């Protein structure tokens, strides 16, 4: 089996561009990155599927080919196309919803993450745990204070 260099370079270029776009903060670019990575995976599956050959139908020949083409690679690519389309539709719906709520297509910093980064960057003294008393073990069958159902009055008596 011969490996052709052009499809492998194309797969690498599509994957690299897709990862670059996926790391952007713009949601539309993230979607385009997902689509490029999906197409790169489809090309990779087809390249790894092997050489072309006769159709996998009994009694059919194609241009004097001697071997039979592997139908698994084609079936996997069709499945991958459907999955990529579904993921793209889901991400597109998320983009539309985020744009309708915030009217901004850029993903901002999460305030909680920013707060945690500030806390970790300050030199706060480490909190030591008090290990002198054992942890209180509660009965899982007993009703807790925040249970939705009230406690059974028969059990309390």
TrEMBL record:
Localization (cell): Cell membrane
Keywords, ordered alphabetically: Cell membrane, Membrane, Transmembrane, Transmembrane helix
InterPro entries xref list: CPA3_antiporter_subunitC, NUOK/Mnh_C1-like
Main location: membrane
Topology of this chain in the membrane: Multi-pass membrane protein
Keyword Transmembrane found: yes
Residue ranges of the region described as Disordered: 110-157
Protein name: Na(+)/H(+) antiporter subunit C
Bias type Low complexity, positions: 139-157
Ranges annotated as spanning the membrane: 6-23, 30-50, 76-96
Ranges in a coiled coil: none
Pfam families xrefs: Oxidored_q2
One annotated Gene Ontology cellular component of this protein: plasma membrane
Family stated for the protein in its record: Belongs to the CPA3 antiporters (TC 2.A.63) subunit C family.
């Amino acid at each position: 089996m011969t490996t052709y260099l052009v499809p492998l370079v194309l797969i690498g270029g599509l994957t690299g561009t897709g990862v670059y776009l996926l790391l952007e903060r713009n949601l539309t670019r993230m979607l385009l990155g997902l689509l490029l990575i999906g197409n790169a995976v489809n090309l990779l599956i087809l390249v790894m599927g092997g050489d072309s050959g006769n159709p996998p139908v009994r009694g059919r020949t194609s241009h004097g080919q001697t071997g039979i083409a592997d139908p698994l690679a084609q079936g996997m690519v069709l499945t991958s196309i459907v999955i990529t389309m579904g993921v793209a539709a889901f991400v597109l719906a998320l983009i539309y919803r985020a744009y309708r709520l915030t009217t901004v297509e850029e993903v901002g910093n999460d305030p909680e993450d920013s707060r945690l980064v500030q806390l970790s960057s300050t030199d706060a003294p480490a909190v030591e745990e008090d290990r002198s008393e054992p942890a209180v073990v509660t009965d899982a069958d007993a009703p807790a204070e925040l249970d939705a159902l009230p406690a059974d009055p028969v059990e309390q008596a």
